Amino acid sequence: MYRYVKSFFGDKNKENTEISKEALLERPLPTHVAIIMDGNGRWATKRGLPRSAGHRAGMETLKKIVETSLDLGLKHLTVYAFSTENWKRPREEINSLMHLLVEYIDKELNKLKDNGVCIRTLGHIEELPEKAVISVKKAIKDTQENSKLYLQIALNYGSRREIIDAVKVIAIETAAGKIKSEDIEENIIEKYLYTAGLPDPDLMIRTSGEMRLSNFLLWQSAYTEFWSTPVLWPDFTQNLLYEAIYEYQHRKRRLGGI
Ligand code: FPP
Questions:
Q1: What is the spatial distance between Cα 30 and Cα 242, in angstroms, rounded to a whole number?
Q2: What would the pLDDT profile of 125-173 be if each residue is shown by its tens digit?
Q3: Among residues 79, 78, 65, which one has the least CA distance to residue 32?
Q4: pLDDT higher than threshold 80 for residue 12
Q5: CB 3.0–4.6 Å: which of 19, 116, 156, 211 could bond 123 by disulfide?
Q6: CA–CA distance, 223 with 139 (Å, rounded to integer)
Q7: Residues 6+ apart with CB under 8 A from 48
Q8: Of all protein residues, whose CA lies closest to atom 24 belonging to ligand 1?
């Protein structure tokens, strides 16, 4: 049976309820957790700080959540770090995000490598600033043999663009006679998505109370369990990840059946 270790106020005040790792390990963990790390800007504004301070705090949360994922034994963690729409933000904010990405990799790479993390990306990384491209490519190369935790960082990622990219290649291959149009099924589409070979997310977490997918893994999340918290990403904790997983473990997934 699952159990709470500490329950100060009962289920009504879930944020005050701590779930133990042991309780989570009594049921199958989600194989793939995806996270929309939202609310960095609001976190900073509430404190009278520049938005970049919110992103920096968000980076610290990301470090903790990767550690928690490793400790729990999650296999796949996918985080939405920069969308195709984020280019609309002020240049200064984009620069600070790119700078943080390079800093995150420079500071964390050795540890991630030693801890068995395999870093991969989703999205058009070649369009990022050169320094970021170099850092990201090094991270991918240096960790490619690892298999304890697959960390997918979505960078310059947009799900519609991903689907358009796939459709274009499929159209070219169909015209060339390599694919028969009558053979185009889900497995063919999946093969041409950036996520080819990756299991669909079982659990999608979004912070800051928003209830949108925001162009993230639209195809892949057809049957994903969605979990949202009003907590802003910089304030997200290990316990909230546990809570999301716990709730996932107690939902009935019918996957279209009864
Ligand atoms: C959304 O918050 C967050 C982002 C667009 C960036 C996510 C980046 C990090 C968590 C830190 C950096 C980590 C890496 C690997 C680059 P928002 O700015 O949209 O917040 P708001 O909705 O409150 O304005």
A1: 11
A2: 999 999 999 999 999 999 999 999 999 999 999 999 999 999 999 999 9
A3: 78
A4: no
A5: 156
A6: 31
A7: none
A8: 41
Q: How far is the CA of 142 from the centre of ligand 1 (A)?
A: 25
The residue extents of the domains of the chain are 30-158+200-248
CATH architecture under which domain 30-158+200-248 falls: 3-Layer(aba) Sandwich (3.40)
If one compares 6 and 65, the residue with the highest pLDDT of the two is 65
- Structure-token match 């999650």, residue found: 74
The confidence score (pLDDT) of residue 16 equals: 55
Q: Does the pTM exceed 0.90?
A: yes
Return the percentage of the chain with pLDDT > 70, whole number: 93
86 is catalytic: yes
What number of residues does the chain have?
A: 258
Cβ < 6 Å from ligand 1: which residues?
Answer: 37-42, 55, 58-59, 62, 81, 86, 97, 100-101, 104, 153, 208, 233
The two structure tokens encoding residue 160: 């519609």
Span from the CA of 114 to the centroid of ligand 1 (angstroms): 26
Contact assessment for residue 117 and residue 149, using Cβ atoms and an 8 Å cutoff: yes
Helices (H), 115-176: 130-142, 159-175
Helix segments in 7-118, DSSP class H: 21-25, 40-46, 51-72, 91-114
